[in-house]
Write a structure and sequence with these properties.
With 212 residues, the protein is mostly helical. It is built from 9 helices and no strands.
Length: 212
């Protein structure tokens, strides 16, 4: 487990964090345009896909490692999780298309559009969590240390995958926790506290040689 005290303050200039902000902004605008119910379908589809991947990801990863002995555990869990997520999301999208015409015929007022924007922002956050999980499980170790370590996206993964295994099984995050814990970015990004300048000593008064 990583030591929270060793974390440096993340910056929003990290590319992975900026991608997450972009996803949230785009889906917020789509929710504002299409309204609440259309965006709720997307949100429910993403949430259900994450839950299915969380529940069945570990058993599928064990089967993959049994079939392919050279496959690393981190990659096996990433492939299993991503496959289950995308398959379930596709099924939810096909089901959602059935009510597409009915939803498009609805007249949307401001409250409906505002609620759709909120649901869109939540959907964007969910998709960013999915992206972070896939990057952490499938990307090379060097890429994790360069683009994930020390970011807000790492905090999302640590909170939802390591401290509280909501989106991933506990055994799936062990290698990622080790890689992120050994990443040298915390010392490199930590700001050194400047030492205060030395105080000038007051000049000492010299007594006349004749006075004792």
């Amino acid at each position: 487990m990583q030591d929270p005290a060793s974390h440096a303050s993340p910056t929003w200039t990290a590319p992975l964090d900026l991608i997450g902000l972009g996803l949230i902004a785009v889906l917020l605008l789509l929710g504002l345009y299409r309204g609440l119910w259309w965006q709720v379908i997307r949100l429910v589809g993403v949430a259900v896909s994450v839950l299915v991947a969380r529940a069945a990801g570990a058993p599928l990863a064990q089967r993959l490692m049994a079939l392919f002995s050279e496959l690393e555990p981190r990659s096996a869990h990433g492939l299993a999780w991503g496959t289950l997520f995308l398959t379930t999301l596709l099924a939810c999208a096909l089901l959602g298309m059935a009510g597409q015409r009915m939803l498009e015929a609805m007249k949307l007022d401001f409250a409906n559009r505002f609620a759709g924007a909120c649901a869109g922002a939540a959907t964007g956050l969910f998709l960013h969590v999915v992206l972070v999980v896939l990057v952490c499980q499938l990307a090379p170790e060097r890429m994790l240390g360069k683009y994930v370590a020390g970011t807000y996206s790492e905090r999302l993964y640590t909170t939802l995958g390591i401290r509280r295994p909501v989106v991933l099984a506990a055994e799936a995050t062990q290698d990622v926790d080790r890689i992120l814990g050994a990443a040298p970015r915390r010392k490199a990004r930590s700001k050194a506290v400047p030492e205060p300048p030395p105080r000038a000593q007051p000049p000492q008064s010299k007594q006349p040689s004749g006075v004792r």
